[in-house]
Amino acid sequence: MRAIRVASAALLGVCALTLSAPAAVASGGGNITPFGFSVLPSTIAAGGQVTLQLNRDGGCRGPATVTSAVFDAVTIPPGRSAATATVDWDAKPGATYQVTFTCDGVSGSTALTIAGGRPVGPTPLPINPVNPIAPLNPDRGVRAGEGGSIAGFDLKEIGLGAALIAGSVAAAYHFSRRRTGEGGA
Q1: Residue 68 to residue 21: CA distance in whole angstroms
Q2: DSSP string, 123-172
Q3: Separation of alpha carbons 39 and 30, rounded Å
Q4: Phi, psi of 177 (to 5 degrees)
Q5: Binning pLDDT at 50, 70 and 90, where does residue 123 land?
Q6: What is the percent of the chain with per-residue pLDDT over 90, rounded to a whole number?
Q7: Backbone phi, then psi, for 77, in 5-degree steps?
Q8: 47: left (phi over 0), alpha (psi -120 to 50) or beta
């Protein structure tokens, strides 16, 4: 009888952990490419420069073309993995523009947001632009502690997950310690 209670408590704990884990969301937009790409920074003021990065390890062999309504088309030649583009001065503040990377007949896109104005939706975190291709300076140490993954940090979700885990641990403890009147014990 004790084995059944322990197994039930373990199953309850595993279910609580499974339900509190974030779900993977797959978009049906066909944005899966054999190569990786990004625009840095993803939020910039009108007239600023963005770095267009391409990961060629996945299958992009030829020249890559990067297009958007907010800057002129840029070609990243074979053998290179980055280029820069200057955002148009007349870009609408608060708007989000699509940036499309095309290589070897395959296309994928990402968003570029123009800073300023009144943003639509949740308030974005402030961005401190850094130069991703900064020259190395041997006289100074590394700049550790910058960056990270704070985007999407939601206290409600974390609190709900912690409450579910605490509840499952408490229930497992309660059920494992509870005595029943069955079996003469």
Answers
A1: 35
A2: PPPP-----TTPPP-TTS---TT-----TT--HHHHHHHHHHHHHHHHHH
A3: 19
A4: -100, -15
A5: very low
A6: 15
A7: -70, 160
A8: left
Distance CA 50, CA 83 (A): 9
Phi-psi region of 10 (alpha: psi -120 to 50; beta: other; left: phi over 0): alpha
Read off the pLDDT of residues 13-29 as tens digits, 9 standing for 90 and up: 665 556 555 443 333 44
Where in the chain does DSSP place strands (E)? 36-40, 43-44, 49-55, 64-68, 71-76, 82-86, 96-103, 106-114
Contact between residue 90 and residue 119 where contact means Cβ atoms under 8 Å apart: no
pLDDT of residue 19: 56
- Locate 155 and state its tokens: 């206290």
Alpha-carbon span 31 to 53, nearest angstrom: 16
Q: Which CATH architecture has domain 36-114?
A: Sandwich (2.60)
Single pTM value for the model: 0.48
Euclidean distance between CA atoms 65 and 100, whole angstroms: 8
Q: CA-CA distance, 67 to 97, in Å (whole number)?
A: 10
Q: Per-domain residue ranges for the chain?
A: 2-22+156-184, 36-114
* Of 69, 74, 67, 75, the residue nearest 88 (C-alpha): 69
